[in-house]
Structure formats: structure tokens, C-alpha cells
Amino acid sequence: MEKELIIEEISEEEKYLLFAIGNDVYGLDIRYVEDIIGVQNITVVPKQPNYVKGVINLRGQIMPVIDIRIRFNQSERLYDDRTCIVVINVSDAAVGVVVDRVLEVVNIPEITVPPSFSDTNQNFMTGVGNYNDGVVLLVDCEALLEEITI
Q1: Coil, helix or strand for 122?
Q2: Residue 54 belongs to a domain with what CATH number?
């Protein structure tokens, strides 16, 4: 019985929820992911960074929502029927993350250290993995949310 638990833990550590921002593929460690929902009415909260879109009420829980495109310094775009909010939990705080589209959950057994391009840019990546003959950038959920104060 203990062996099964250990196998599940190892397997879970390698699982990532893949999502797309434009043509780029990113991954969230599945251990942080609580839910995936469609975009709903977001209430704007004044005096927040531009990537903080506001708050939503999800089954009685009020949570901030960030737009990961803006957080990654990419251009904003209109939400469509493929746009989703991925609810992640970091340090017992739930946050909604708007992504262009959710792709799938995959195992990424081999992860390399992300390249460092500049000391002035914040690094939101924990690593880089292979996906469909391309690259998937693995997001550091804690770094992604570290400046949010809602």
C-alpha cells in the first residue's frame, strides 16, 4: 500500500496542466491546480496592477483574478469561448489565472533549468520541458503571485 502512495506522489510531481498564450505553451504544476472554469463576470478592484483584472465569486469564495498574458508583458486580447480561468492555490490562497486556452495534463519527466536572459526581468519559470517536439515553459506559481495584495 505504501508503494502505491509513493508511485502516485512521484507521478503527480511530473504532471503539468498545459495551457496556451498565443502560440506559446506553458505548464502549471498540477499540485497547484484546483479548478478550471469559463470566464465569468470579473469585478474590477481599484488601484491594482494592470494584470490584476479584479475578483470573482466562485461558489461563495471571493478570489482575485490575474491575466497571465499581461503578467508576462504580452499584449492584452479579448476573451473568447476558449479563454479559461485556471484556479490555483498557493499558500492556502486561491487565485484565478486567465489563460487563452487549456490544452491537457501531461507528464514531463525531464525538466531543465530555464535560461536567464536578464537580471531586470522577473523570472516566472521553474524549468523547461519538451512537448510535441517543442518547448513548454513551466510556470513558478509562487513567483507569479508574489506581488498580489488583494
Answers
A1: coil
A2: 2.40.50.180
Backbone region of residue 28 per phi and psi (left: phi > 0; alpha: psi in -120 to 50; beta: other values): beta
The string of pLDDT tens digits covering residues 49-81 is: 999 999 999 999 999 999 999 998 899 999 999
Nearest CA among 136, 120, 132, 16 for reference residue 73: 120
Q: List the one residue out of 40, 34, 98, 39 whose CA is nearest residue 65.
A: 98
User: What is the DSSP-derived secondary structure letter of residue 71?
Assistant: H
Q: Is there a contact between 142 and 91 (Cβ–Cβ < 8 Å)? A: yes
Indicate whether 79 belongs to any domain: yes
Nearest to 102 by CA among 10, 16, 1, 7: 16
- The pTM for the full model equals 0.83
pLDDT tops 60 at residue 7: no
